[in-house]
Amino acid sequence: MDLTSLKRGLPSDYFWNKGKLNLVRILFERVFSKGYFGEECKLLCVGVGTGDELVVLNKYGRVFAIDTNVDAINALPDQNCYEKKVGNVCNLAYPNDYFDAITAFDVLEYVDDDSLAINEINRVLKPGGVFIFTVPALPFLYSAHDRLFNHVRRYTINRMMLILSGMKCVSKGYWMFFCFPAIAYKKLMNRTGTKLIYTPLPSFINNVLYSIVNFENFLISHKFKMPIGTTIFGIYEKLMVNEVE
């Protein structure tokens, strides 16, 4: 969860946040089941926000956390990460071939030079290591929300495939298909807004939406492909030395 969202009144139990955390679990289980992680696995979490995902990541190895926001790093409980520090994805202070996995959940949209960020991620990943990410989807949905959060862009799957062309795709797809019409309508109606205030949902509505999102997560966990969504997720693998041309 983004710190800005929390400060602007988005509740921590908001259906989107809980649903995304379950998506993260699914993506990690998909990777873990393929045997990517060993007992001494090192994971780098780029752009931790409120650190919700760290609880999931901790199950798979030692978690190194970085964020450009000092407050975000200081707020992270020490028990949730092996190391935490202020850092930038475009200039990672780690040696080559260091991490088994790197995550960037809703991070790349903030970065001016996302190709440079991907190059740095690829550099510090071990050959055969994995990059797991989410990004906001579909440029035509760029709205006041994106602008007020300082998002540089929204993505297409083709753009992600292009900037990740030096890596091997393990899995990719859309998320938030069933809620897409409502979310898209809200974004399109709020292209020029200057304020972002979250109105708490009634608990019943929030729970219904969470159930809908979790049904979609269930389908994704069984390899169903959503035709569209407001988020793109992906798992990409760093090429082994003998795979690099």
Keywords:
single chain; 245 residues; alpha/beta; Rossmann fold; seven-stranded mixed β-sheet; 9 helices; 34% helix; 21% strand
Which secondary structure elements does this structure contain, and how are they paired or packed?
Blueprint: H1 3-7, H2 15-32, E1 42-46, H3 54-57, E2 62-67, H4 70-75, E3 83-86, E4 99-105, H5 114-124, E5 125-136, H6 144-148, H7 157-163, E6 167-175, H8 180-188, H9 203-221, E7 231-238
Parallel strand pairs: 1-2, 1-4, 2-3, 4-5
Antiparallel strand pairs: 5-7, 6-7
Helix pairs in contact: 2-9
Strand order of the largest sheet: 3-2-1-4-5-7-6
How many DSSP-defined strands? 7
Helix content: 25-40%
Shape annotation: globular
Q: Give me the secondary-structure category.
A: alpha/beta
Rg on CA atoms, Å: 17 Å
Question: Overview of this structure, please?
Answer:
The chain has 245 residues and is of the alpha/beta class. Helix 4 (70-75) links the parallel strand 2 and strand 3. The chain has one domain (3-238): Rossmann fold. Helix 2 (15-32) runs parallel beside helix 9. The chain has helices at residues 3-7, 15-32, 54-57, 70-75, 114-124, 144-148, 157-163, 180-188, 203-221; strands spanning 42-46, 62-67, 83-86, 99-105, 125-136, 167-175, 231-238. Strands 3-2-1-4-5-7-6 form a seven-stranded mixed beta sheet. The model has no long low-confidence stretch (mean pLDDT 91). The protein is globular, with a radius of gyration of 17 Å.
